[in-house]
Every structure is written in structure tokens, then in C-alpha cells.
Amino acid sequence: MGVIELAGVARRYETGGGVVTALAGVDLTVDAGELVVVLGPSGSGKTTLLNLIGALDTPSEGRASVAGHDLAAASRGELFRYRRETVSFVFQSFNLFPGLTALENVRFGADVAGRDDAVGVARDVLVQVGLGDRVDHFPAMLSGGEQQRVAIARALATGNPVLLADEPTGELDFHTGTQILQLLRDQASSGRAVLVVTHNREIARMADRVVELSGGQVVHVGPPEGGPVPVDELRW
Amino acid sequence: MARSTTSRHPSVLWLRWSWRDLRARWVQVTAIALVIALGTGMYLGLSSSAAWRQVSYDASYAESNAHDLLVETATGTTADRLALETALDQVAHPEWFADRSVRLVVPVQVDASTDDEDVLVPGQIVGVDVVQGPTVDRVTVTEGRPLTAADDGRLVGLAELRFANARNLPVEHEVRISGDRSLQLQGHAQSPEYFPTASEEAGIFGSAGFAVLFAPLGTAQALNAQEGQVNEVGVALADGVDAEAARAEVEQALSAALPDVALTVTPLVEERGYRILYDDIDGDQRLFNIFAGLILAGAAFAAFNLTGRIVEAQRREIGIGMSLGVPSPLLAVRPLLVAFQVALIGVAAGIGVGLVVGSVMSTIIQSFFPMPAWQTPFQVGIFARGITLGIVLVVVASLFPVVRAVRVPPIEAIHTGPRATRGAGLAVRGRGLHLPGNSLVQMPVRNVLRAPRRTALTALGIAAVIATLVAVLGMIDSFIDTIDRAEVEVTSRNPERVSVGLATYTTADDPRVAALADVEGVAETRPTLDLGGTLRGNGEEFDVYVGLLDFASPIWAPSAVAGELVTDEPGLVLSQKAAADLGVAPGDRVSFEHPRREGGGYRMVQGEILVTALHPNPLRAIAYMDMRHADYFGLDGIVNGVQVLPEPGYPQEQLVRNLFVQSGVGSVQSVRMIIDTLRDTVAEVLDIFDVVQLAVLLLALLIAFNSSAIGADERAREHATMFAFGITPRTVLGIAVAESALMGVLATVLGVVAGRLLLSWMVEVLLPTTLPDLQVDVSVQVGTYLTAALFGIVAVAVAPVFTLRRLRRMDIPSTLRVVE
Ligand SMILES: Nc1ncnc2c1ncn2[C@@H]1O[C@H](COP(=O)(O)OP(=O)(O)OP(=O)(O)O)[C@@H](O)[C@H]1O
Ligand SMILES: [Mg+2]
After folding, report:
1. Per-residue pLDDT band at B597 (split at 50, 70, 90)
2. In terms of domains, do B305 and B396 share one?
3. Residue B298 has what pLDDT?
4. B665 lies in a domain?
5. Which domain holds residue A129?
6. Do B290 and B406 have their domain in common?
7. Residue B771 belongs to some domain of the structure
8. CATH number of domain containing A15
9. A143 and A119 co-located in one domain
10. Which residue from A69, A185, B359, B652 has the highest number of Cβ atoms inside 10 Å of its Cβ?
11. Is A60 inside a domain boundary?
12. Are residues A72 and A174 located together in one domain of the fold?
């Protein structure tokens, strides 16, 4: 019984020019403590998949169940609660609050998840992502990579059991990138289900399992060739 | 993804692009267009109405063939018509004089009671020549039938329109007049001398309290037993003749032919009524300009905001354009085109608003100052000016943010986020500021501090409207307070008292006066004497009504706010306003022209009189003197009025009737009635303020809505992020409401302060020139502040609620994905 269970999930968009199929017939199970990398070219439906699991979007068909919540059957209120307490997001385009400092952005994550000592948690997580000295800076004063790390910290601060990261290392150099990946690996080790979206095949090597998407369909699922390697063995 | 355009010229692309920007923000665009529409519309409508008054007054005087010169006999005297006309024929240049009409104006007491109310008022019968005209100062019948030659000598007449309106007289109505006779009124009519009823008596009583009745000349003469006598001649001059030269000629001819008859000749343009009408237009126009200007300022701020935000959203695109080498002016075109289009839409709608406001104003003015000719020609000049002003203001206001945006180095424009460089704003400086509560609670304050310039501009836009609101409502408050002060003063003692005007001057021991004390319902009486005079000083000159009464009267006497009421030397108790205008204080002397009895008649004499005290009545023209000093006017022992104190509980209407039928009684006014009349007059003025008030309230709502719509738009991404973290729309809305409320508080504080300053300026600088007869002091009721708070804080705070639907229906994935 996986934390995330998708069965025959499809997502189609009605546009003026016809129907765009972003996802079709996706079956996927992710267990607690598992780190799954979703791989695929641009436009293959990776973000759409995360959005469906995060209940930001609803499937056009199929069943999605996460941590025992049947997302299709849940009420609006239950979905909001689910997003507060079950999933946390690292967005492809960060979506930090420009009016809040790094610390406050991270604290926001801890606050909404209802964690005690939100400020303490936020500080710890910022230190973990290597931004212990930038806590009082606003997003506008941070580089793209730093902003990305704040976004990751915000997701980690929630402490929720399902972590969804969309291109979390897109803006990062190799060194910082591996630090972050180690952090994600640690999250999985501590029992969370972690889903990482990337188009970087090298990163897929650290995954417990790799899901390959193409044109909205799962074309391959399985452990990486030769089995998962530790983060410090990655090279790109 | 650039779809290929079929346009031949690149400018078509820019136009289409700006049009797309416009549609993408249609909610704000509509709101701002409405704000601009209100601003220009108010300007167009109000200014048009002032222009209409000008043309309508001109047309009314022209259509009635109003006199250019008015020849009058001294008060209370008449002249032989034939002798007068013969004398007028003796002028040196007869060709200067086009026409003339004679009149006999006689004071009369009128009982015009209707089924609804008792109307017992002083008034006058204006006997006009129905046989030959009147050709000068025509009597225009608005309802009913005109008087004809066949009516001469018959007891028929017409009620002057303003009196008829004020008292709701039926078209055909029988009135009782002094001498126990009745006059059959055939309708309502107007004549130039009574366009505003400007006689001394009407000045006190208002149009409701003074009955002007037109009657055939023969009838007036017969009623007054003055066959062949007249006391006024309206003289119309030939085109292009100088009134002053003609006046001199008439004066010369009259004094040569009738040396013993005291006559005055006054040009129309110097007459009080004429001046009141035209001066009022200028005063109103200034007020209108201020209101319209403030509303337009609010509109300009709103437009400034919108373009500022559009520009900000386009910063990246502008930066990209710059790095592609597109010249700055070309980059500025797109946001400016948006502003221009918003202005066009707004101004187009403003024309509609202007027409509506104009027609509302037209109705109000017509009921306030009815005129026989009311013309409302389309004011091309005003519209051209207003439209240009609206467009230029909006485009210029938009120029600032656009110019600033295209001037920044491209690197800054392309920087990570759209709000990148400015994102932190004041919050950066407020970093050390540790706010209590969790991050959600802090969010509103953070957002307000984040973009101080934007916050300031939004707040200023709302503040401009709140300032107008406070000024308009404060103006109404101040007027009402003025009347309240008058009421407090005159009703301080025995508010149920009645003042009786005698038909003629008489001696204090006249048995008819003594008999009033025995009338049923009367507890006590005290004689009074009312006189007119003119005060001069400090470059000011105005008429006053001096009430001589016993300052020790148990019924009523004025109270003094400064100086001593009882003095050995004769002196006047002036209103504070009169003293201030004349630059005098108790103990000073002031130039006073007044009648003095000499032998059997009166002569106007000029003297210096002591100012003994100041009374609190806000009417400048009211003055008092202790009856003990009546000798100052040579009128010791002479009276023309009586203060009456009713028996406690005696019905006032009955008392008024009892007194009115007494011989020698001219008018009976309860003190309450005088106050009510004053209230009615002020209420009419306030109608105009109501129009402005309505516009301002609407505007406040629009701006509130607009700023929250803009806010919701800009924050869409943040809101989507919050949703992704499980924050409910209700909480997001709560944050927006709190943020708006903060903004509203800021704007309201600013607006109230500015409005209060504006009000002081209007009341202390503007009113004294437009309304010199009244002392209006700044007075703002708590209700006004509450209304300001209601619109400035509550409405602004609640406005985001209207975005709830949009929040709920937000496409979260798309909003989150947008890469700026
Ligand atoms: N609202 C929408 N309307 C129409 N098509 C959409 C919409 N949202 C997404 N799509 C389409 O769905 C497909 C999948 O999009 P998705 O964002 O999931 O891609 P992705 O794999 O995350 O790509 P990338 O690596 O570039 O982020 C794309 O072809 C996209 O154009
Ligand atoms: Mg994606």
C-alpha cells in the first residue's frame, strides 16, 4: 500500500485549437521512505503530474489517492487541509513571497503546517540549505539559486509526509545541487515519500525508482540502471 | 509564441498589443474609466449648469424686456402717473429711450392660506399696466392665464412664482388681503424685479414669507385709494445706449419737471436682485471647479496607479525590448497607449455622466431660481475643455511611471522578478522591526510596507476622495450648524413667541397696539420698532435691519457674546460677522446711514454710531438697539411691531389667526416659522451639495473596488502559492481585507486632515465672498467623520470580498506556472 497511488490518471486540456493531452493512463505507486525521480523532456507532463498529486489540479480521468485521501472524492475543505498537512511543494518557478524575508518565507511553511516553534524550525532548515547567513534577506536580494534553496527550505519546513520537488536543482551549481539532493535523500530516509522532477538523467541515478514520461505517458518505471548510488557519486 | 500578424505597419502591432493589455485588465480598466467618467462628468455637468444659468438669466431678462433703469419714488410715497410720464418725455435725447412701463407697488397683508397650511404673511401688490402691456418688465405667466385689459379694476391677480412654489399655492386661488378684501389669483407669474425677490422685507422673510401678487394697475390703485398714482417706472433703453448717461438725463429731466418729488434712478446692473443672481453663478462655479478638480485628481491618481502597475508588470518585457535595442520612446508607447485608451473610454462615459449631472443640476437650479427662460444649450467649449483636461490629466499622470521604467538600465529591468529591485521597499528598512504573530498575520503589514510608493499613491487616490467627502459633508454640517446657532439664539427664551408686524408706524399708546394684549391666547406684549439702515467701514457696505426692542423685555432680547447690551449712549448690537467685516469691536464707532424723522417725513442721514455689543445670530444683517434710544432716529414713542408671548399651551396656529385679524396688524410670524423658513432656504442650497456628495460616495466605492481588484490581480501568484500550501481562500481574503483596511486607515487619516483643511479654506476664504450675509463657521459633525471612516476604511476594507469569486475559481497550476 503506497503513500501515493495513481491508477489510470489522465489530464486533458480543452483549448480553442483542440484537446491537449498532458497526461494519459498514468499508473504509479510511491511508498513512504522512497525517493522517486520523474524524468522526461520538456512538455512531457512532469509538472502536471506533481500538480495532480498535490491536489492543485484534478485528473480528467483515473483515481489518485495520497496518504489515504481519495483526491477525487475529497471536499474543497479536505483538499485545503490535505495541502497544509500532507504535501509540500517546491515549485519550478519558486513562487516565494516577495514581501517576506527568507526566514519568513520558510517560517510560512512551518506555520501553515501547524508546527510548534515555527521560527526555530525555519532557522534550522535555512542552515541546512546553506542560507544561515541570509535569513533576513528578501527574495529580490537573493540570486536565483539562493531563491530556489529558500523554496526548498519552505517545503521542508512543513514536515509533511509527501514532498514534491519540481526541478529543485535547476538553478544550482554542482556543489550546491548535490547538497540539496542529499537533503532530499535524507527526507526520504526519515520516512517521507519524495518525488523529484528533473530532466537531468544523472540525478536519476540517486533515485530508488525512476519514472520516465514522454508525451504524457509513462514509458518506463524501475530502479536506475545499476541500482541507486549515493549522492556524492553523482557527476554532471 | 509570436503568431504572425497580418498588419502592414508595426504601429498596428503596438495598438493591438496595448488593446490586449487593456482587455487583460478589463475590471480595473472599467473601474478607472468610471472614475475618470465621474471626474470629467462632474466637471462637465456642473460647469455646464453655471453656463446655462448665465444664458438663461440673460435670456429671461431679454424676453421679459427688463428695464435698464428703474425710477422709484421715496418709500411710502407715490407720484401722479401723468406728471411723471410727462416729465420723462422731457429728456434731452428721447431717441435713447425705447419704452417704459409704470407700476404701483403697495404693501399689503396677505392671507393666502391653503387647505394644507395657514399662510399669513406680509407682501405687496404690484399693480402693472394691463391696458398697454406691460411692455417693459413683462409679467410671464407660468401657469394659469395672463391678466388682460378687461381685468383692469377687477379684483384679480397672479401669484409670484417663487412664493407660489414655496407655499404650494393652487393655480387658481382666492387670497384675503388687508382691508378685508379678496383677490382671485388666476395663476403664477414672474417678472424681472422678482426673479430673486430682493426687497428688504423678502430678504428677512424669504420667498415663502413674503407674498408678491401681480394685479392690474387700476385694481392696485383702487385698493389703495390712489387713483392715477404710481411709484415705479421701468425704463428700457434703445440698443447701445449707455445706462449711466441715460440715468443722468432722466435724473435731470425729473428734477427739472418735478422738483418736489423725491425720486431715485437705479440702473438694473446695480440692483441687488440682479447682482445676487449673477454673483451667485461665479461663486458656485468656483465651488464646482474645486469639487470637480478634486474628483479629477482622484481619477488621475487612479490612472497613475493603473499605468504604474501595468508598467511594472511589463518591466521585464520593457527590459527585453531595451536589450533588443528598441528605442525607449517606442517602448513607452505601449503603456501610454493603454492609458490613452482608458482615458478615452473614461471621457466618453464622462460625457454621459456630464449630461446626467447637467440635467439633475438643471432641475435643482430651476426649482431654486426659476426663470421664465431656461435654456440648456450644449456647452461646446466646456465639453472641449473637460474632455481635453480628462485625457491630458490621465496621460500625463501615466507618463511618470512609464518614463521611469524606460529609463532604468536594462539589466535592472530583466532582473529575476518583476518586482525584483523594488520588492522589498520599506520592508527592507523595517527589517529590524519584529512584528508579533505568525507569518500570515504579518503579511498585510508586510505588503503595505513593501511598496511604499504604490501604497502612498493608492492611499492618496482614496484620500483625495475622502477629502472631498469630508469637505462636502462638512460644508453641509457647517450650514446646518449655522442655522442651529440662529435657532439657539432666537429660541433661547420663550421659543413659542410670535412677532407681529404692524401695517404702519404708530405711537406706542395707539389703542390698537394696547388691544393686542387682550387678544385671546396672548399673555403679554412688548412693542418693537424695525428699521433699515446701511453700515459702512473697512471697505464694506451692507444693509442691516435694526430691531429696536426693550432689552429688559421679559419676552425676548438678544444676548451679547461681547460688550454690554445696556449702555447710556445709543448704540447698535451687531452680529459678529458684521463687526468682523466692518473691522469693529464693541466700543468702536461705525459709519451708519439711517432714516431720521424730521417734521412729518423721513430723511436719510449719515452718522457714526457706537457698537455696544455683539450678538450670536449668524445673519449679518440683523442688528438691535435698545428701545430706550429710539430718539436716535427721532422715533421716540413710535412703534411698528409687537412681541407677543402666548399663554402657555395656547395653540399657536389659533393665536396667529387671532392676531392677524386685529386691526392695524400687518404680519404675524412665529419665531419657529422664521427658523423653518431659513432651514428651507438652506435646504435648497444643500441640494447641490447632495449631487456632489452622491458622486463622491460612488467614487470612493469605485476607487476602493479598483485598488482591491488591482491588488488581487497582482497578488494572483502569491495567492496561488498560498493555496498550494493549503491556505483557504477565506484566509487569503482575510489577509487582503486586513491589508486594504490598513491602506484605508492611512488614506482616511490623510483624507480627513486634507478635507478638514479644504473645508476651512472653503468656509473661511470662499464663502465670505459668495455668501457674505451669513456667518458660517467650520463645524464637522461626528457623523461626517463616521461616514468618511465608513467609506475610507470599511468600504475599502470590504472591497476585496468582491474578488472572492475570482479567488475561488483561480486556475492554480496556470497561475503558479507563469514564468515572468
Ligand atoms: N492550461 C493548459 N492549457 C493547455 N495546455 C496545457 C495547460 N497546462 C499545460 N498544458 C500542456 O500540457 C503539457 C504538459 O505540461 P507540463 O507543464 O506538465 O510539462 P513539463 O513536463 O513540466 O515541462 P517542462 O519541463 O518544460 O516544465 C504541455 O504540452 C503543456 O503545453
Ligand atoms: Mg514543468
Report:
1. confident
2. yes
3. 73
4. no
5. 92-159
6. yes
7. yes
8. 3.40.50.300
9. yes
10. A185
11. yes
12. yes
Total domain count, chain A: 2
Q: What is the Cα–Cα distance from B501 to B524, expressed in whole angstroms? A: 16
DSSP letter assigned to residue B410: H
Residue B813: nearest ligand to its CA? 1
**Residue B525 cell numbers, joined:** 406684549
For residue B137, pLDDT beyond 60 = yes
Minimum Cα–Cα distance from B432: chain A residue:
A136
Q: A11 C-alpha to center of ligand 1: Å? A: 10
User: Judging by beta carbons within 10 Å of its beta carbon (0-12, 13-18, 19+), is residue B434 exposed, middle or buried?
Assistant: exposed
Residue of B nearest to A104 (CA): B439
Q: Is the pLDDT of residue B59 over 50?
A: yes
What is the total count of domains within chain B?
A: 4
**End-to-end Cα spacing for chain B:** 14
Query: B542: which strand partners?
Result: B535
Question: Which residue of A lies nearest to B810 if distances are taken between CA atoms?
Answer: A56
Phi, psi for B344 (deg, rounded to 5): -60, -50
Nearest to A143 by CA among B408, B449, B817, B417: B417
State the best of B442, B725, B812, B815 to mutate against chain A, taking most chain A CBs within 10 Å: B725
Hey, which of A15, A19, A20, A53 would you mutate to test ligand 1's pocket, going by the most ligand atoms within 8 Å of its Cβ? Answer: A20
pLDDT at B432: 44
Shared domain check, B148 and B134: yes
Please give, one letter per residue, the 3-state secondary structure of B304-327: HHHHHHHHHHCHHHHHHHHHCCCC
* Residue to mutate, A14, A23, A37, A44, ligand 1, most ligand atoms under 8 Å from C-beta: A44
Q: Which of A47, A83, A93 sits opposite B726 (nearest CB)?
A: A83
Residue B368 lies in a domain: yes
Q: Contact B211/B47 with Cβ under 8 angstroms?
A: no
Q: Does B185 score more than 70 pLDDT?
A: yes
Q: Are residues B635 and B692 in the same domain?
A: no
- Is B254 among the domain residues? yes
If you search the block for the grid coordinates 457674546, which residue do you land on?
B561
In the 8-state DSSP scheme, what is residue B755?
A: H
Closest-CA distance of chain A to residue B3, Å: 14
Say yes or no for a CB contact (<8 Å) between B427 and A138: yes
Residue from B1, B811, B812, B814 whose mutation best tests the ligand 1 pocket (most atoms within 8 A of CB): B814
B255 and B294 within one domain: no
For residue B268, give the C-alpha cell: 438694473
Is residue A234 included in any domain, yes or no?
Answer: no
Q: Is A154 found in the same domain as A168?
A: no
B466 shares its domain with B517: no
CB A51 near ligand 1, within 6 Å: no
Mutation target vs A (from B426, B439, B442, B714; most A CBs, 10 A cutoff): B439
Q: Which domain holds residue B200?
A: 75-261
Verify whether ligand 1 is closer than 6 Å to residue A41 (CB atom): no
CB contact at 8 A, A146 and A131? yes
> What is residue B600's DSSP assignment?
T
**Are A145 and A197 contained in the same domain?**
no
- Residue B83 near residue B153 (C-beta atoms within 8 A): no
Closest of B415, B422, B423 to residue B320, by C-alpha: B415
For residues B97 and B232, membership in a common domain is answered with: yes
Q: Is there an atom of ligand 1 within 6 Å of A47 CB?
A: yes
Which residues from chain A sit within 8 angstroms of residue B731, using beta carbons?
A: none
Q: Among A136, A159, A182, give the residue marking a domain's end.
A: A159
Report pLDDT digits (tens) over B218-275.
898 888 888 888 889 998 888 888 888 888 888 888 888 888 777 888 888 888 778 8
Q: Which residues of A touch B727 (CB under 8 A)?
A: 80, 84, 112
3-state secondary structure of B104: strand
Domain boundary among B421, B452, B470: B421
Q: Could you tell me if A60 and A133 lie in one domain?
A: no
Question: Cα angle at B407 between B402 and B413, to 5 degrees?
Answer: 90
B388 lies in the same domain as B359: yes
